[in-house]
Amino acid sequence: MELLNQTIKKVQPQLYQEVKKEAVYLLDQFAGASNKVLKDNIFRIIEEKEEVDLLRFPINDDDLCGFICEHRGQFFIYINTYLPYEKQIFTAAHELYHLHNKDKEELLHRRVVEENKELNLEESKANLFAALILVPELSLLEELKLLKVRTEKDLDLLKIIKLMDTFAVPYKTIILRLYEVELLELKEVKKWLSIPDRNPQEGVLYQINKHQIGQRWQKRMKEVKYSNLKSLIIDNDLAELLPKQKIEKDLSLIGDSDGS
Fold first, then answer.
1. pLDDT, tens digit, for every residue of 231-258?
2. Which DSSP helix (H) or strand (E) runs through 68?
3. Burial 169-198 (b: 16+ CB within 10 A, else e)
4. Residue-range domain boundaries for the chain
């Protein structure tokens, strides 16, 4: 399915406004401002919610981004840290939508986000929600003003890369947000989306590396973090609740044998 046909602003403008209101509400409630740029603070927002545990570890699969599931009343969000960091951030925001709407939609025991699967309406809404909270409209318009972009003719790939760096989101997310704020028309969106965005030899990724802008968001961090498990293990150690050998074994199981 063509990406544009999954874009709610195009197919259901009224629904777009509803999801936008929800995104603004969440930013006001959890980030303190509806125009705040979150970047990887999205992980902190999830971690501070008591009803969910955030699990982050690498699986060598570019199609598997993450999922949310529920077990015995507790929710778990998994993020694949093998992916480029910008995609991890977007996936976290996507899954936050499902968590935020867990009482409104049927939550599958295991909801997996895969890039190459045809998305249903709820997945499209989650993608829109993620884009809206990571690239707030007022912040995007302000950045466009600073870059002296008033129309599509003022755009170039370098300016788009700078926007990607500012908001820490993938290339396609920026293009779709430019369409949603009505800077780009459909034919222009198709033109920009035709540019390769994951090939280090040409297109977006090539320009990122050439200009050394936003390279940190392209790194595959491969971080391992199981909610607050490490802090609990260290607390047990400080309180001398468990033998030192047990503490070291537990830390080694989460990939942190030196305790750092």
1. 543 444 444 454 555 545 545 655 654 4
2. strand 64-71
3. bbbbbbbbbbbbeebbeeebbeebbeeebe
4. 3-218, 228-260
